[in-house]
Design goal:
mainly beta, six-stranded antiparallel sheet, six-stranded mixed sheet, 3 helices, 7% helix, 37% strand, elongated
Length: 179
């Protein structure tokens, strides 16, 4: 699979008998998935979708424009991940990052390299960065004061709860970064 592809949605369960599926969108505005001419899956197949309900129900077409029109075909696509080329996505605002832009960046704490970012987790309570070696750090301005996309590095400051230093709290701004 190409490294410039960004996960934008996942096909869920079939809906009804006419080939409709539920799609979980990772876009800020799910309606934008209709704008992408070719969503790609992990096998390199191209898809387009049209929303058919407010609850994430969509119809799918393959690269030739053939509509997925029965439940069996729709059921075969469950858990298919849909990707879009990174260059088709809008540019980010300041202090806003795509997860894929952060993964692989080198992490520095003072003068020591801690490894690279393996994963960005966000379970609804705010994003966190998983770093090689198992360290997980909140992705806040206080804990990650510097993100240099050009140099592919981030600088971190561990909170007392992570570093084990009693009596030292994290001071300063605690604004949540957007990812």
């Amino acid at each position: 699979m190409r490294s410039d592809l960004i996960l934008i949605g996942v096909i869920g369960k079939a809906h009804g008998v006419r080939g409709l599926v539920r799609v979980h969108s990772y876009a800020d505005d799910p309606a934008t998935l209709e704008e992408y001419e070719a969503l790609q899956d992990e096998q390199g197949r191209s898809w387009s979708l049209r929303w058919r309900g407010a609850d994430g129900v969509a119809e799918l077409r393959d690269a030739r424009g053939n509509l997925i029109s029965d439940r069996t075909a729709a059921q075969a696509l469950v858990n298919t991940r849909l990707y879009v080329s990174r260059d088709l996505l809008p540019e980010t605002e300041e202090e806003e990052f795509y997860h894929s832009d952060l993964i692989g960046m080198e992490v520095w704490e003072g003068t020591a390299s801690l490894g690279r970012i393996l994963m960005v987790h966000d379970y609804g309570g705010g994003a966190s960065l998983e770093i090689e070696g198992g360290l997980i750090i909140p992705f806040t301005r206080a804990c990650v004061p510097d993100v240099d996309l050009a140099a592919r590095t981030v600088r971190i400051v561990r909170p007392a709860e992570v570093s084990g230093e009693e009596g030292q709290g994290v001071s300063g701004r605690s604004a949540e970064r957007q990812v």
